[in-house]
Every structure is written in C-alpha cells, then in structure tokens.
Design a protein that fits this description.
The protein is α+β, with helices and mostly antiparallel strands. It has ten helices and seven strands.
Length: about 280
C-alpha cells in the first residue's frame, strides 16, 4: 500500500434513488485507510478490544487502533503479537487459520484470518478467562469480513453484499454512510458548488448588502429543501430565480428584482456551464 500524499481525495458518489441513501466508496489509498481505521475503532467500541491490529503476513501493519498510553499488560500482548508474527503467518499460510484464541495471564489475544495474506489481532488485557471472551467473537468475525471487503476494494453492490450475513452488510453500509458524511467536502462536486455559491453571493451582495446575504441564502436553501453539496445546474438556476422572486423583490424592489432576473440569469447560466 502506498502512502497517501495528503491531497484532496477523489471519491465515487453512490445514490440509491428508492431511499435517497447517500454513500461513498473508497477510490484510493487515503479513503481505504480511513475506512480501515474507522472499522478498527468501531470494533474496539463494540467488542471492548484494547488494541486492534490489521496486518499482512509479511509483517506490514495496514491499519491499527493503539491507545497513546499502554499499561503493562497491553504492552506485553502487543509485543507478543510482534514476536509471534512468523508463527502466526505460518498458520495463515499452511493451516488456513480462521480464528485463534490465545490465553495469557496478562489477557487474551484473538487472531482472526482475513483472506490468505492478512489477519486481525484483537487484544483484551482486562479479560483473563476464556469464558469472558465468548461475546466478543461475533463482532470480531464481523469486522474481519468487513475489513476483507474494504481491503479488497470491492464495490457496495447487491451481488457483492448478498454473499454476507445481515450484520456484515449493515456494518458496511454504516461505514459507507460515515465516509460520505466525513469526506464529502473533499469531492470535486462539493468544491465546485462552493465556488458557484460564492459567485451568487457576490451578486446578492450588490443589491442586498453584505449583512443580508447569508440570511437570504439560508432561507432560500431551506425553502427549496436543498443542500449546497448536492446542487446541480438546474437547482442553481431555480435557487437564483427563487432568491430574486421571493427575497430581492421584497427587500429591494420589484424593479431591482426584474433587472437582476434580466442580467444575472444568463450570466450565471454561462458560468455554471463552464464548471461542467
């Protein structure tokens, strides 16, 4: 895996028209790392794992959840994973390891195989009996399936999702929605719409004054039931007409509104086409 260069990351937007669900699928290393890290954090929250490592059988750490401060037991178990890496990898290669529970006086280590070349190590320093770990196995297996799907960069399509049990499908969809929510502002579409809004705001400022612009923009968006990030060319033209007819006409005058309609609409339409 190459390292992300920190630049804005292109994403693929997926819309399901029946429910208007908005999701994103990872398109490069930056998004891949975000999804892997997010899933490990979610695993820690659900299963109570102190540490979680998603590793390759060649020793690379693809992603990890490691608290800043480790106690003695956590540090011991973390080093145990590192020191036992050749043995773990051999099990994965030669014995097709699915899951292994290792019990130590410092806690419990659960190794879950992910495909042929990776594994998930979940560390529980607060659990000291095998019976205490029984409720953690299901979320670990679920996260293992989710991590495998993400790592292989498979699409979130029905034919792919049909292969999984409901809890894995639900987790993948939750991650996808989180990705949309957290990363949508990195998309080209969102940035384009921000630029368009700034152009329209400058127009509004010339007739309403700077102080009223944000209020008019917010009211117009609310009245249309739209969000800036999801606007298309037609939406922006309706936004402009709505602002002129319902706000500029009232706050300035009908004459000013008519002049804005006559000059702004063709000018803004040309600018919008230039963004396509």
């Amino acid at each position: 895996m190459a390292e992300s260069d920190g630049l804005p990351i292109p994403l693929k937007i997926t819309k399901r028209c029946s429910t208007m669900e908005k999701t994103l699928e990872a398109q490069d290393v930056g998004m891949l790392k975000y999804l892997l890290e997010t899933e490990l954090i979610r695993l820690s929250d659900e299963a109570g794992a102190d540490l979680a490592l998603f590793m390759g059988i060649d020793g690379r750490i693809f992603s990890s959840y490691i608290p800043f401060d480790l106690n003695t037991e956590q540090y011991y178990l973390l080093n145990l994973v590192r020191n036992n890496l050749p043995h773990i990898c051999a099990q994965l290669r030669n014995e097709n390891l699915k899951i292994s529970i290792q019990h130590y006086k410092e806690g419990i280590l659960v190794i879950s195989g992910i495909g042929d070349s990776a594994f998930l190590a979940s560390i529980f320093s607060k659990k000291h009996e095998i019976s205490e770990i029984q409720y953690q196995i299901k979320p670990i297996l679920k996260s293992s399936a989710v991590l495998k799907h993400i790592f292989e960069m498979r699409p979130l399509k029905s034919e792919e999702l049909s292969k999984y049990p409901p809890d894995v499908v639900e987790e993948l969809m939750k991650l996808s929605k989180l990705l949309f929510k957290e990363r949508f502002t990195y998309t080209k579409e969102y940035k384009k719409n921000v630029k368009i809004l700034e152009i329209i705001k400058k127009k509004l400022e010339t007739v309403l004054g700077k102080g009223a612009v944000n209020e008019v923009v917010t009211m117009t968006l609310n009245e249309m039931g739209m969000q800036v990030g999801m606007m298309k060319i037609g939406d922006w033209m309706r936004f402009l007409e709505h602002a002129i007819d319902n706000h500029i006409k009232v706050m300035a005058s009908e004459l000013v509104a008519e002049e804005c309609r006559r000059t702004w609409i063709p000018e803004i339409e040309i600018k919008l086409r230039s963004f396509v």
